Amino acid sequence: MLDLAIFWDWLSFGVRWLHVVTGIAWIGSSFYFVALDLGLRRRPDLPVGAYGEEWQVHGGGFYHIQKYLVAPANMPEHLTWFKWEAYSTWMTGFALLCVVYYAGADLFLIDRNVLDVSAPVAIGISMASIAVGWIVYDLLCKSPLGKSDTGLMLCLFVVLVFMSWGYTQLFTGRAAFLHLGAFTATIMSANVFFIIIPNQKKVVADLIAGRKPDPALGAQAKQRSLHNNYLTLPVLFLMLSNHYPLAFGTQYNWVIASLVFIIGVLIRHYFNTTHARKGDPLWTWIAAGVLFIVIIWLSTVPKVLTGEPKAAAVNAVYTASAHFPAVRDTVMGRCAMCHAVEPSYEGIYHAPKGVVLDSDAAIADHAREIYLQAGRSHAMPPGNVTQITPQERDLLVAWFEEARKK
Fold this sequence. Notes:
15 helices, about 65% helix, about 5% strand
């Protein structure tokens, strides 16, 4: 049994690592080509059909790149297709979803205080929501609204806000953020699989057959590529959010997720504008910074965190608190079955992240983590499987904040 647990933990690590590697490859190529496209320059003596060109230097060599909006008059013998980065990222991401959230549904996916369903039902909701997301998005793009890039993006943002709220009504906060990322990443990958690559293949087939390619195919693919470009940074935040309980485990987590999309769009707008040599819109960074401060405030409403105690020896302060006996009982009863040298909770074979909370000193050592993970946010216990009460969470907050004042 122990061997299986170790294997599963390493499987999770391996799939996660592969997902990161393929994600870097996809995001890197996406950012490069958007920057390249925006930096193209036109000149009178470009080849027939060429839209623009750019000279670049890297690694000691010079590169001369030309772009054709449709295709060149003669197809080159070798043509590199950029698609497997997107496909591999989605497949490894879905595999990670299965290994962590589906296999561990009772711990990581389901919060019975939010929605009391069985693991198969929760998994079914998860898969259905991700698939329906692509269908709704694709229909919006193909509707009359799709003729307006701005109108379409605003409508898409409304959908994402709704999903931000909706996922928090279905799953744990951690799973809600992860699913919002998967929802968005599926749209991005499906854009490549169903629109961008098929349209490019149609253009190539027309050229080989001697037909004139339809320029609308390129325009449609470019629109979807633009969406992918603006959605990338929010997806990165959502995929990393499980490390930050103040983002996913607080009351206004869905508002935080919605604001993250705006921040990501602002940052991409800055880089896209500078790459296109259309100015230096520093206001985007100021706006993003303001929104980030709003997120910090939302994560701790109605109080804002003021930092860690700076005294050299703080353990005595925590253990001397009048709240500590009740805090110790709460931690021992709600947390220590997992956070122990030999966990007693079924399916947990070693203390998560090596955090052991089986003594007064250990509880004091991890006071800040307890405060953030189980007091200020609802990140712990996962899915509130040990049924910690709001009063117990308030106790943890009062204990920590009182000790910090001393």
